Amino acid sequence: MKSRRNVIEFFFLIISAGLVFIACPGKNSTEEKKNIILGFSQIGAESSWRICNTQSVLEEAERAGIQVIFDNAQQKQENQLKAIRSFIVYRVDVIAFVPIVETGWENVLQEAKEAGIPVIVVDREIDCDKSLYTGFLGEDTEEEGRNAARFLLSKFEASTENVNILEIAGTKNSSPTRLRGSGFRQVIGTQDRFSIIHSENADFLRSKGKQVADNFLEKNGGLVFGGRPIHAILSHNDAMTLGILEALEEHGINPGHDVAIVSFDAEQEAIDRLKMGKINCIVECNPKLGYELMKLVRMCAQGYPIPDGTFVKESVFSEKDNFSLIPDRGF
Ligand code: AHR
Prior knowledge:
With 331 residues, this protein is an alpha/beta fold.
């Protein structure tokens, strides 16, 4: 055990930084495993997806005998910066964090680098010099966007009419918002009759999804924009989609029939709406990153290089599927 980690310092940091010390080393840990300490900064608990993502990390850490100092940033980048700095002061072996937005990480990552602590970026990507962090683990959100567009192209392939799309995007300046948006645009851009005629952000939150959809419907007098009807809604996550469905139904609109609904994540509640015909397609976003993360943490802690990017497998659920074959999602 490194001498700098004395017990008094440890408890002082836990109390002063509001951090939560989560997992203990497993009984049968090997010599290499048992001293690894991971500092993990999560962005919050904005969706069932996010809660599952946190659980996956904490459960797999416990299983792997890796100690975790966990911080919930309550959707604020400044809280993440504070947490990462606390991890550096404590001299954890590895830092992992889910960046709420893409920019603004250079200084803190430089500090981690100078302290010799490897950093793994998890779930969301950052716009930053690659030499400042060790690697990325997460989902291919650009491909998710392409898959959403592929579904819409096939859904409307029998018609020759224009397809007008309303986009409700996630958090501004976050990588899933940018990449789902760009992947989607790459594919619909191949067909002139498909276009996004309006786009708004709703922060990946159910309450905001409902609020944005309500305002849109009231302001425009229904599902029209600039005199053009909306044929499809692209919503960047299930939490927002569930809020949008509520708003549509309150305005007498039948989602899935009057307007096509395409969503991301595949939470159980959204899969239930897919089965009811209220959502037409859900592109999976896989929250279960814990197992892969612990493998990478162990490699980093032992001084091995890790791949620049590690991407988890994902699929697509749609109205064309045999619903009886969709297993319980568990979140
Ligand atoms: O970064 C992944 C996204 O963040 C998920 O789609 C969403 O549910 C979460 O808020």
